Amino acid sequence: MGRRRGVLQQPGAVHRCLLGSGSATASATSSCHSVLLKFKEFIRNFEKEKNVFPHRESLVDNPKFLVVNLEDLLSFYSDLPSLLRSSPSDYLPLVKHSCKY
C-alpha cells in the first residue's frame, strides 16, 4: 500500500472509490476524491484552540487510533457528518485512508 507516481496502490473500497470500478461514474469518483480531501484537511487543520490541532497530534501519538467528535467535523465541513451517518461503509474507509498521509 502506498503511492507511486500519484497513483494509489491499495485494494479495496478506497481504491475502487478513487480510481473507479466498472460501475463507478466519473462524478462518483470525483465526489469520493473530494470527500477524501475534506477529511484530510479536517484531520490536519482543525484547531480546537489557536495552534492546537487535536486530531493531527492524536495521530502522532497513536497512528492506529483516532477519536473524532462529530461536532468538530460539523463545524469544519457541515456535509461530512451526514455522509458518515448515511453511508458509514462507504465513507469510513476514506476517513481511515485520510489518516495515513
Helix content bin: 55-70%
Strand content: under 5%
Number of domains: 1
Number of strands: 2
SS-based class? mainly alpha
Mean pLDDT: 76
- Gyration radius, rounded: 14 Å
Count of individual helical segments = 6
List the helices and strands in order.
Answer: EEHHHHHH
State the end-to-end CA separation: 12 Å
Shape descriptor:
globular
Uncertain stretches: 1-11
* Order of the strands making up the biggest sheet: 1-2
For the largest beta-sheet, the strand count, sense and barrel status come to: 2 strands, antiparallel
InterPro entries: MCM_N
Organism: Gossypium tomentosum (Hawaiian cotton)
Protein name: MCM N-terminal domain-containing protein
Domain MCM N-terminal: 38-98
Describe the 3D structure.
It is a single chain. The chain is mostly helical and 101 residues long. The chain has one domain. Helix content is 59%, strand content 4%. The longest helix has 20 residues. Pfam families: MCM_N (PF14551). This is MCM N-terminal domain-containing protein.
What layout of secondary structure does this protein have?
Blueprint: E1 3-4, E2 7-8, H1 13-19, H2 26-45, H3 54-61, H4 70-76, H5 80-86, H6 88-98
Antiparallel strand pairs: 1-2
